Inverse folding.
């Protein structure tokens, strides 16, 4: 009782009228109200009337109605309560039936303990009322269940007809696929041919719902598995992107280190040259200052000689100047640096930086082939066919699409045969073409023809793939050809490990016959071969 009361107070009460739900409806925002309350609130909101929608009093979200041409009072008729809300109402709402007391006695304001439950009448009955129930012809065959202890039985929910408000929906019109009451059957569906009761279809519906549930459960498991895979892939990709970022930073840092090293070299070279140049300039300045002092001293001595009254002083100074004594330092200085400059090419530097290859970001999209990804096994084929005495030894294969059927063609040297494997009507199928000797290599000629080498017999055979195998022609060659490939509609390339054959009597004639045979064979195929 406490649980029922709490549910009624907190979950089964309309927030507009503050009473237990009466004909509840759940809007698109999942808020539930009484139909009458929602209609009355909507009438007070002109924007809802203009939008032909029910408006939620709690969050103001609009709910479109199925038939806006109807009066506003009928807009909420098509809006159903949620499954959870309806289940709570059926089990704990005021209309849920208590099996403790007889329903008929309760209407007479009596509380008589119930002993049975009638599933057809959907009521609990006491001993007295059940005797009356069994005497009435219309109810004597109803299924009743004895009640042991306190049992709560959920009331059946009756769906009322939208057109005839007092009638329950009991029939299903299979022509219109619509649930109707008996009055609708008579008035609106009189031209329909097939009517069944909803009760008769319940088991079929339950069976279909179980199948849908199983399908949904499988989809749920698949989706969960794929979601887990995506989450794992997300974590892997995030880790991979973090590693890529570290690699980019590492490569960029290395490039920066190289540029820094180049800068240091230039600065060291500049410092070395500048030190030498500045030293030479300082030495030149000192030399010029010393020469200036010498010239000044000599000038003073000449002045003293000119001012002297003694002729000998003038003569000696003259003799000294004639001997070159007055030239203290020469003016010629060779081998010194005149100027140090820094030469750079901005355009060349910009081009070098633009061509700098730090790396590239490649994007692999869905459907592309990832050559860097790890190989994943897609399918396997057992190439040994029932009845063969020897284990198959496959030497070459090709995959072909023949009339929309993917076909695997291969050569089995151990069983001297060419085989094809394909799927038809969801069943694995195969075909086998026996040869007299071991086939080795094969190559595709057209969409449904292959050429196969038979080196033991010096032959090349053509085989039709439909996808069953069919021998088309045989070419006898002068050598044992093992490998073979298709170049164009008139040319094949083949490999042979044997040395050139020695000439024997009739060699030239035999060679001419073989060449002519090959030409005739190519001419016969030229009309059917397609260029790749």
């Amino acid at each position: 009782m406490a649980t029922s009361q709490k549910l009624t107070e907190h979950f089964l009460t309309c927030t507009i009228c503050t009473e237990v739900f009466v004909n509840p409806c759940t809007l698109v925002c999942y808020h539930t109200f009484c139909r009458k309350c929602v209609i009355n609130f909507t009438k007070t909101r002109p924007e809802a009337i203009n939008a032909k929608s029910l408006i939620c009093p709690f969050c103001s979200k609009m709910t479109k109605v199925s038939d806006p041409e109807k009066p506003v009072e009928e807009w909420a008729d098509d809006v159903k309560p949620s499954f959870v809300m309806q289940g709570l109402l059926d089990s704990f709402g005021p209309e849920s039936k208590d099996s403790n007391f007889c329903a008929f006695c309760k209407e007479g304001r009596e509380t008589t303990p119930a002993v049975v439950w009638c599933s057809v009448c959907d009521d609990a009955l006491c001993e007295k009322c059940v005797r009356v129930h069994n005497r009435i012809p219309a109810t004597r065959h109803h299924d009743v269940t004895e009640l042991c202890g306190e049992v709560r039985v959920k009331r059946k929910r009756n769906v009322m007809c939208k057109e005839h408000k007092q009638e329950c929906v009991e029939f299903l019109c299979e022509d219109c696929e619509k649930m109707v009451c008996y009055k609708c059957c008579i008035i609106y569906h009189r031209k329909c041919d097939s009517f069944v009761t909803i009760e008769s279809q319940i088991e079929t519906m339950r069976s279909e719902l179980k199948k849908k549930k199983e399908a949904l459960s499988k989809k749920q498991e698949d989706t969960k598995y794929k979601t887990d895979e995506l989450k794992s892939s997300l974590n892997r990709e995030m880790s991979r992107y973090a590693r890529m970022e570290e690699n980019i930073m590492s490569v960029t840092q290395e490039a920066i280190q190289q540029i820094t090293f180049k800068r240091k070299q230039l600065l060291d070279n500049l410092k070395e040259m500048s030190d030498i140049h500045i030293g030479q300039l300082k030495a030149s300045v000192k030399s010029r200052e010393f020469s200036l002092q010498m010239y000044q001293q000599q000038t003073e001595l000449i002045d003293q000689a000119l001012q002297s009254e003694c002729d000998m002083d003038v003569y000696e100074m003259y003799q000294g100047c004639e001997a070159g004594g007055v030239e203290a330092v020469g003016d010629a200085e060779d081998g010194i640096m005149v100027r140090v400059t820094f030469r750079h090419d901005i355009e060349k530097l910009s081009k070098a930086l633009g061509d700098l290859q730090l790396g590239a970001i490649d994007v692999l999209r869905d459907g592309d082939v990832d050559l860097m990804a790890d190989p994943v096994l897609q399918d396997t084929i057992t190439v040994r066919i029932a009845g063969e005495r020897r284990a198959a030894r496959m030497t070459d294969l090709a995959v072909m699409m023949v009339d929309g059927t993917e076909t695997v063609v291969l050569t089995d040297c151990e069983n001297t045969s060419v085989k094809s494997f394909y799927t038809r009507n969801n069943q694995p199928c195969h075909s086998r073409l026996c040869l007299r000797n071991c086939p080795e290599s094969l190559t595709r000629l057209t969409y449904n023809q292959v050429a196969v080498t038979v080196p033991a017999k010096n032959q090349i055979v053509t085989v039709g793939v439909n996808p069953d195998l069919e021998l088309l022609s045989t070419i006898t060659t002068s050598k044992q050809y093992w490998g073979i490939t298709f170049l164009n509609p008139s040319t094949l390339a083949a490999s042979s490990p044997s040395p050139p054959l020695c000439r024997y009597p009739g060699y030239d004639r035999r060679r001419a016959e073989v060449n002519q045979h090959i030409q005739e064979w190519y001419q016969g195929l030229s009309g059917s071969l397609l260029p790749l």
